[in-house]
Design brief:
single chain, alpha/beta, Rossmann fold, Arc Repressor Mutant, subunit A, five-stranded parallel sheet, four-stranded antiparallel sheet, 8 helices, 12 strands, 22% strand, elongated
């Protein structure tokens, strides 16, 4: 995911940016509400994480301005204010989730992944990596203009890899986003599907796009 983190606590921000980066996510950080709002309005993010109490502009104000501008990017509110009324205020301001401090990093990560899964693919959206094109509306995949026939699970797997093109996609991410598993079933299901997908998108082409990153996961894109 491409995540915007709006957090004025430098130590907390450093911890989150490092942790999310290790999970193959790309994070932009803003240390106050004004700069966070500007990044949110200019950028294209999968999810925004916003502290509620920020210098210059509070988190709920940021959310209200984004929604008024037509921006529907999911927002996870972080706050030390954990009473029911506080959580309700955050959600009614336009927040999509509310996490009370202190929290466990793995819970924050799971909530971000859940927010990403809720987002429907825009009609007519096409994912493109090199000469590989996946049309989400027509449910078709072409490489160099040649139609490739994929099974539904292979299509979902490829779409996940293409959305994260250029970045390592871990096995855990694939299990959650493609199979909706929140545990490791201890099977070779991913290896089998990756092998089948590689056979279809790479076998008859000189340039290989699907790469195994040993000990980490998989990456789609031209080898560096």
């Amino acid at each position: 995911m491409h995540i915007l983190m709006i957090e004025d606590d430098a130590r907390a921000a450093e911890y989150l940016v490092k942790g999310l980066g290790q999970c193959a996510h790309v994070v932009d950080h803003a240390a106050d509400g004004d700069s966070g709002l500007q990044l949110a309005l200019r950028g294209s993010y999968d999810v925004i994480v916003a502290d509620r109490l920020l210098p210059k502009r509070d988190g709920l104000s940021i959310i209200r301005m984004l929604r008024a501008d037509g921006n529907r990017t999911p927002v996870l509110v972080l706050s030390a204010l954990g009473e029911v009324d506080d959580r309700v205020a955050g959600l009614r301001a336009g927040g999509d989730d509310y996490l009370v401090k202190p929290y466990a990093f793995r819970e924050l990560l799971a909530r971000l992944e859940a927010l990403q899964r809720r987002q429907p693919a825009p009609m007519g959206e096409a994912l493109v990596v090199g000469d590989l094109v996946l049309d989400l509306q027509c449910q078709t995949v072409k490489r160099a203009g040649r139609l490739l026939r994929l099974q539904p699970r292979e299509f979902r797997l490829l779409a996940c890899l293409m959305r994260h093109a250029g970045h390592v996609v871990t096995r855990t991410m694939l299990l959650e986003q493609v199979w909706d598993f929140h545990f490791d079933p201890q099977t070779n299901v991913i290896d089998v599907q990756i092998s089948r997908l590689r056979n279809k998108i790479d076998k008859d082409f000189e340039l290989q796009l699907l790469h195994t990153v040993r000990g980490a996961g998989y990456q789609l894109g031209e080898a560096s």
